[in-house]
Design a protein that fits this description.
The protein is of the alpha+beta class. It contains seven helices and eight strands. Strand 4 and strand 5 form a beta hairpin. Helix 5 runs antiparallel to helix 6. The longest helix is centred in the middle third of the chain and has 31 residues. The two termini are 28 Å apart.
Length: 234
């Protein structure tokens, strides 16, 4: 004979369901056909979570990683400016000055001003001019270095957040142990605990149930930041 659970609030049992079952039932993968930016049809799968399921979550929401977009952009800028500097500035090319037929060194057919002279040698044939200094593309190197540093810092922040969240929720198994003893009444919109030593069998709001569960896991302070939103009685 199956055991029934009566809600201590309304005294009925027809709409009482185990918290883990309510939580899992409210998290569905929904697939739909949508058009992409090119106008082609594609299948997109999203996870749809009901309000009750979200309110009964045994662990906090993981930190968002929107900063990753900045890191990817910075990495692309770093790579692009580095390649542009290599190609335009000839950073890794060694092109020594060659001597012309008259013994005056020149680069690319343009004569250079002899060392120690402040003016070109006008005794040379027409067209013999001092070489113009090559464009300075060093700024591309600075941009590339700054963008690379930004990408590295973003990566460090993301890894630090993930590590901190993992440390914070390492007591999740204790929270889920208490969470698994919860029973949700769809009529009252409350939760009560069954068979937990030291815990009264009284109706709890979704927020109070969250506080109890999360405190059991060692991250109860986050319950005040991520409050359980009561979606109303279903």
């Amino acid at each position: 004979m199956s055991r029934t659970h009566t809600c201590p609030g309304c005294g009925r049992e027809d709409r009482v369901q185990a918290v883990p079952a309510v939580y899992l039932a409210g998290r569905d993968a929904v697939s739909s056909r949508e058009r992409d930016s090119d106008g082609d049809m594609r299948t997109v799968t999203r996870t749809v979570t009901t309000g009750v399921s979200d309110a009964l979550a045994p662990v906090p929401r993981s930190p968002t990683y929107g900063i990753v977009v900045l890191g990817v952009f910075a990495a692309l800028v770093s790579i692009g400016t580095f390649i542009g500097g290599v190609q335009a500035g000839h950073w890794f090319e060694d092109e020594p000055a060659a001597a012309g037929g008259d013994g005056v060194p020149h680069v690319g057919g343009v004569y250079l001003i002899p060392e120690g002279s402040s003016e070109p040698d006008y005794s040379q044939p027409l067209g013999t001019v001092a070489a113009a200094p090559p464009p300075d593309f060093a700024f591309l190197g600075w941009i590339s270095a700054f963008a690379l540093l930004t990408a590295v810092l973003v990566l460090a922040v993301v890894l630090r957040r993930r590590s901190a969240f993992a440390r914070l929720t390492r007591g999740r198994h204790r929270a889920e142990e208490l969470w698994s003893h919860g029973w949700y009444c769809h009529r009252c919109g409350t939760v009560h605990l069954e068979g937990v030593p030291g815990e009264d069998r009284i109706p709890l709001t979704l927020q109070r149930f969250r506080e109890k569960v999360w405190e059991h896991g060692g991250y109860g302070d986050l319950a005040a930041e991520q409050r359980a939103v009561d979606p109303g009685r279903s």
